[in-house]
Design goal:
2 domains; six-stranded antiparallel β-sheet; Jelly Rolls; seven-stranded antiparallel β-sheet; globular
Length: 267
């Protein structure tokens, strides 16, 4: 009896080890939560193509919305003008589309006016996992030396989520004067709810159109806000139902949630 139990136990142990090995097999992509959404001095966690750099207020006169640094992506190659900041040329549109997992022509289809096609630009991307119902938020500032409402040179910034491209801003957006470029939108926040639990690839980019003037987008404070906010009962009803110890835990959670919420909207 003892022997058979021992054999059964050993078999189960071996089986569970095998399961562990299967799930931890090397080479498996193990996407994790989004990291370095504030671009804290580097592109750690992000992949880049083209003229992508980390910039501070001191370096470009654009105030990041989180911490001391932000990502700045531009449409410029080193021979274009003086705005190339990374020493890496902007990438040809076909290379950008491959990097972003987009079908050929996808970026040009976002350009809804004008004579000239999308030519080159810059993008960054990161793959992460998120729970259904969580909210993706990020801050962006579109900057350009192109003329406002430039139909033929309507350079633009965009983001992609799981290989679908969406325009963020172009020369028809509301622009104000800028210090580093001629005009900018100023930082705004984009938010979208992630409907499914799973793996997401998020990318940001900017492209020029024909011989348009230098354009850029700065990105900061990319963050995922979970939806699983624990609802804490009103203190009056808690007193009638729960022990004092539970009440203390409840208030602790409430305080944490409030801190989290205020962080999420504090731009
Ligand atoms: Ca930052
Ligand atoms: Ca260019």
């Amino acid at each position: 009896m003892f022997i058979s139990k021992l054999i059964k136990k050993l078999t189960l142990t071996a089986a569970s080890s095998l399961v562990s090995l299967i799930f931890l097999a090397p080479g498996e992509a193990s996407a994790a939560s989004l990291v370095n959404g504030g671009f804290a001095g580097s592109f750690n966690g992000w992949q880049t193509i083209g003229d992508a750099s980390i910039q501070s207020f001191e370096s470009v006169g654009i105030d990041p919305t989180e911490g001391d640094f932000q990502a700045l992506l531009s449409t410029t190659s080193r021979t274009d003008d003086n705005f190339n900041l990374s020493g890496v040329d902007a990438a040809d549109v076909s290379d950008l589309e491959i990097f972003l997992g987009l079908k050929s022509g996808s970026l040009d289809s976002l350009r809804n006016s004008g004579l000239f096609p999308v030519e080159e630009g810059t993008a960054i991307k990161q793959t992460f996992t998120a729970e259904a119902g969580s909210t993706l938020n990020f801050d962006f500032n579109f900057l350009t030396d192109e003329f406002a409402n430039s139909a033929d040179f309507n350079t633009f910034a965009f983001f992609t989520l799981n290989n679908t491209a969406n325009k963020l801003a172009d020369t028809f957006s509301n622009l104000i004067s800028s210090t580093f470029f001629d005009q900018e939108t100023g930082y705004g926040t984009f938010s979208t709810v992630l409907s499914e639990t799973g793996t997401y690839t998020l990318a940001f980019g900017v492209v020029d159109v024909g011989e348009s003037y230098a354009t850029a987008v700065s990105i900061d404070n990319v963050r995922i806000v979970p939806s699983n906010v624990v609802k804490v009962p009103e203190p009056s009803s808690v007193l009638g139902i729960f022990e004092c110890g539970v009440l203390v835990v409840g208030f602790g959670l409430l305080k944490r949630q409030q801190t989290k919420s205020s962080k999420a909207v504090n731009l």
